[in-house]
Amino acid sequence: MGKSILVVDDAAFMRMMIKEILTKNGYEVVGEAGDGAEAIEKYKELKPDLVTMDITMPEKDGIEALKEIKQLDPNAKVIMCSAMGQQAMVIDAITAGAKDFIVKPFQADRVIEAISKALG
Amino acid sequence: MDMSQYLDIFLDEAKEHLQNLNEQMLLLERDINNLDIVNEIFRSAHTLKGTSATMGFNNMATLTHEMENLLDLVRNHKMKVDSRIIDTIFSSLDILDQMVISISNGGDDSLDATEMINSLRSISSGESAEGKDQNSSSALGNGREDFLFDEYDRTILKQSIESGYSVYKILVTIEAETILKSARAFMVFHELEKYGEIIKANPPVEDLEKEDFGDHFSIILISKNQLEQVKEAVMSISEILDVNISTVTKKDLELETEDSKDIKKIEEKSQNNNSTKIQANKVSGKMVRVDIERLDELMNLFSELVIDKGRLDALANDLRNPILTDIVEHMSRISSSLQTNILNLRMVPIEQVFNRFPRMIRDLSKELNKKVNLSIIGADTELDRTVIDEIGDPLVHILRNAVDHGLESVEDRVKNNKPETGEIILKAYHSGNFIFIEITDDGKGINREKVINKAIEKGLITPESTINLTEKQVYELLLKPGFSTAERVSDISGRGVGLDVVKSKIESLGGFISIDSKLGKGTTFTIQLPLTLSIISSMLVQVQEEKYAIPLSSIIETAIVKKDEILYVQNQEVINFRGKIVPLVSLKKVFDVPNSTNDDSDEVAIVLVRKREKVAGLVVDSFIGQQEIVLKSLGTYLSQVFAISGATILGDGQVALILDTNALIK
């Protein structure tokens, strides 16, 4: 069975995109979350092998969620999803323990590269 | 990847974001120092950028990107919000809106946004402390891979080598298409710091941070680890094309010439994300997006079921089997609650229409130099999706009228002891099977004399007939085709399209519009709309062997009159009904219904219907009763049938045509 992945993004559209890329490449998307708080809940519940985490989200942003997930599970593998121009936040996230980041618009091969490297 | 399947959801979300952006911008305009709002706007713009770029709408992405840049400066206190920023962002939103519309109409985003992009840029760069100096730094990318060490560097490196550390010169090449190169570089630094200490980087860290480098950079690392280990660590980072590591020896160091460049550690810019919590204005419930066509389909299937239920009903009545009766009764209850549920699915809050008005009123008031405060009441009132789609334009028209013609100029208001700011209230509420929308302004009201004079001038009425006109009748003149009271044709309203268009639109939705006004105090437009268009209350009537449904909303009353009471005026059958002469229309004649029974009774059944103030009597053979019917269109081939607006299937499986009484009354 493929590695389990939790997809976090406030845009349903983006979640669909990532999900499609992942599923096509043999990963199993076990859950989706629309904001940081939900992401943490889902993480506790599903214990996925990896999380893709959008940075800009309402209520609780991706970096806060990342930090909390890292507290729950220091070995958590989180890949940040960012957009152009979020350099500083990406750096913040890496410092906070994110494994890698991918940049929107997503290119399937990049996403897969990042995920396989993070899991490997 | 094929993106077309995502287009719908993309458009949906894009529209939501644009709406949100407009709303938030309006809030920001009132409260320009509120960074929470700026953050919310930023977030929305940001998501929009991401999704549009993914869909390949690069024009949209570029425009939102520039907007985001500007907003970023604002939220990082590098710039203050002023009217120029607000106006520019509003105009950008308009362009984005047009792009979205064009995309949803099957086009693309190729609208020319260069001007907008440039003005966003000029605002960002003009006042930005962070304006990028394009000419800074050396020609990087092909730059020197060699380091120039100063005395201090050399001393440190020598000492390190002497104490058993290795000094590596690491040349990292990242993939050419990498976005956020400096974050990638940071990851390399972050990784390498686990293995030792970074002494120097080329290009310098400041340039790496500014993304001012080509596809490669080099680093000097002091480490105790093996070269291979370090290499592997860097290669494990994604988007790294190649890593070339060489060991620096003491000899190399001695050959270095002097240069002075400092090294700074990459400063971890702490974005103050935590301090700026955006209040959640939407509770994200568990939602499913459903195509309206599927709901229509569901409704259709359900109405088929209702028909069968009707037949079962009839059967149970005949058989008088208690068990069967029991089952049928239970089914009736369930199907009626099912019907309510399905109808509710089609209901959407009128908010969808209302929420674009604040922005419109803002623009109007700026354009006309009037101060306007728009209050919206009852935006959560729900009505049928099909009505929602149609009601927007008429409302826009009435609101524009209210601002343009209704409200006085600021000077006139002050002269008349009114507050400078005009009030417009947009209110929606349910009542019975109808929804009411009221647009009230506290402007100058309608001048009776002016209206009458204008109507005479336009030949709509004769001077003699004006004496007995009630206020209502006068206001109704405004709704007549070819009437426009505006003394001058302004850009806002009175473009030749009058309120008559509004009226006919609303009537086509099965609704009514009325006007109420007090001179000097203001005007109220009231629109009455049916809750839903798909199920209507109707009166079933029999004409020979055929059945017809007449919408209850247009029926005044029913009556039975003696045949000898029918009079003839100019060869037209009329009756004197409660002192009023009412023309009769025989449905049998209009629809050419074949004769099947001999008509020997001396009475006729009449349904009195109205279209505004006009009344007519429809002659039928008998009344069947009142019934909720499911409206089905006749399809494209038969859409132009005279006086028929659709059809319905009755409980016994028969088809009844639904009358369009408006067409029968000329």
Report on the structure:
The complex is a heterodimer of chains A (about 120) and B (about 675). Chain A has one domain: Rossmann fold, CATH 3.40.50.2300. Chain A starts with a strand and ends with a helix. A 5-stranded parallel sheet of chain A has the order 2-1-3-4-5, sandwiched between helices. Chain A has about 120 residues and is an alpha/beta fold. Chain A is about 45% helix and about 20% strand. Chain B has 5 domains: about 5-140, HPT domain (Four Helix Bundle (Hemerythrin (Met), subunit A)), CATH 1.20.120; about 145-250, Histidine kinase CheA-like, P2 response regulator-binding domain (Alpha-Beta Plaits, 2-Layer Sandwich), CATH 3.30.70.1110; about 290-350, Helix Hairpins; about 360-530, 2-Layer Sandwich (Heat Shock Protein 90); about 535-665, OB fold (Dihydrolipoamide Acetyltransferase, E2P), CATH 2.40.50. Chain B starts with 6 loop residues before the first helix and ends with a helix. Chain B is an alpha+beta fold. At the A-B interface, α1, α4, β5 and α5 of A face α1, α2, α3 and α7 of B.
Walk me through the topology.
The complex is a heterodimer of chains A (120) and B (666).
Chain A: E1 4-8, H1 12-24, E2 28-33, H2 36-46, E3 50-54, H3 62-72, E4 78-83, H4 87-95, E5 100-104, H5 108-119
Helix pairs in contact in A: 2-3
Chain B: H1 7-30, H2 35-54, H3 58-75, H4 83-104, H5 114-126, H6 151-162, E1 166-174, H7 181-192, E2 196-202, H8 205-209, E3 216-223, H9 227-235, E4 240-248, H10 250-255, H11 292-319, H12 322-345, E5 347-349, H13 351-354, H14 357-368, E6 371-377, E7 382-384, H15 385-406, H16 410-415, E8 421-431, E9 434-441, H17 448-457, H18 471-477, H19 499-508, E10 512-518, E11 522-530, E12 535-543, E13 546-551, E14 555-562, E15 567-569, E16 572-577, E17 580-586, H20 587-590, E18 603-611, E19 614-620, E20 622-630, E21 644-649, E22 655-659, H21 661-664
Parallel strand pairs in B: 6-8, 13-22, 17-19
Antiparallel strand pairs in B: 1-3, 1-4, 2-3, 5-7, 8-9, 9-11, 10-11, 12-13, 12-20, 14-18, 15-16, 16-17, 18-19, 21-22
Keywords (chain A): Phosphoprotein
Pfam family, one (chain A): Response_reg
GO biological process, one term (chain A): phosphorelay signal transduction system
